[in-house]
Fold this sequence. Notes:
Blueprint (H helix, E strand, L loop, with lengths): L6 E7 L2 E6 H10 L8 H31 L6 E5 L2 E5 L6 H26 L7 H21 L7 H10 L2 H22 L4 H17 L11
Parallel strand pairs: 2-3
Antiparallel strand pairs: 1-2, 3-4
Helix pairs in contact: 2-3, 2-4, 3-4, 3-5, 5-6, 6-7
Amino acid sequence: MKALFLPMLRFQLFGFPILIQWMFWLNTALLGGAIGASTPAEMRALAAFMIAAFFSVLIHELGHASVMRSFGDRRVGIVLYAFGGFAQGSQRFTRGQDILLTAAGPGLQIAAGLAVHFLLEILDPSISWFTYLAAQFVFVSIFWAILNLVPIVPLDGGRLCAGITGRPKLALRISLVTAVVLAAGFLYLGYGWITPIFFGMLAYNNWKQLQGEPQIPWMNA
């Protein structure tokens, strides 16, 4: 099990220690179509997607981490792992603070996506690869941030649901139903197998929590 969390890269950014696990790169590559990529053009497109996803997810977590620091937490780290990322702090926050720091991640990610979208309007279209990378960044930043706001624990939407309602058990029930519906919906619509499996695993994790069992470790974001 520990091999799944083997660190791949460590560095600091804005005073935050960053850890990127190898599963982050693997899952990002699979989402970017690595299995079917064979031509040089497809490999360049895959590389653009992976770079865009990396910066977008990192910006998302910097949103969380920056607000945590503003609330007085001086020991905040960021981890990018198999299912995205999380900002890990060292202190507890009030209900209101938790709502704000949770919303900061997708909020900053969407803002970055919109900023690059407007930048695309003035870019030289002849810079094809960079333009494609920027377009992928816009897609990932806006679509993934919105998807992350659905009320499923441990996604930001699930945490917001728990914080706003003040009823963690109710939030878990809402999360379980939502995850099952999305897993079935993406499977029915033919969106590959990674997304349905992802939401299916989240549903299973929610069910375990409702039974009083601990979360699956790699989903405890």
